[in-house]
Amino acid sequence: MLRAVTSRFYAATSAALRANIQRTCAVQAVRYSSHVKESDEEFDARYEAAFNDPNTDGWLIRKLMNDLHGYDLVPEPKIIIAAMKACRRVNDYAMAVRYLEAIKLKCDKNLDKIWPWMLQEIGPTLKELGIDTPEELGYDKPELAKVNVFDIH
Fold it and tell me: Quick check: 58 and 90 in contact, CB under 8 A?
């Protein structure tokens, strides 16, 4: 008796689920295919405008930084300058320094080329806002680093 009830229940629910899944997949394909490609200038302008908006609070600044960090790119200096000004506007010095650290990590393999150029471009704004770089704060050297045993002798 129980086997007959469960098999009928399974047959009824699986048919309904299959129909729902097919309908959902078709709708998602339509939604995703209508995406418009954004140019680099539009991308930069969108993030710069979002950071420069006076109504942007600390949470939204963090979200914008996180979204921007998720892309496979190093942001333009004008976006970083807008982000630094936004951090100072909401009085979050720590977020500004951490974002500079994140930008430095994004430079990855081209650190010796990109990071000095980036500091040259954003340096005057950092001085104007009173924000120190991670190197000036000593964050480039670990505080509690142990000496490598292979380098002792």
Answer: yes
Q: Between 143 and 103, where is the model more confident?
A: 103
Give 23-84 as a 3 state SS string.
Answer: HHHHHHHHHHHCCCCCCHHHHHHHHHHHHHCCCCCHHHHHHHHHHHHHCCCCCCHHHHHHHH
Task: In whole angstroms, give the CA distance from residue 87 to residue 33.
Answer: 36
**CATH top-level class of 40-129:** mainly alpha
Condensed to tens digits (0 to 9), the pLDDT of residues 3-23 reads: 776 677 677 767 666 666 665
What pLDDT score was predicted for residue 3?
Answer: 74
Domain layout of the chain by residue ranges: 1-34, 40-129
CB 80, CB 103: distance < 8 Å: yes
Whether pLDDT at 28 is above 60 = no
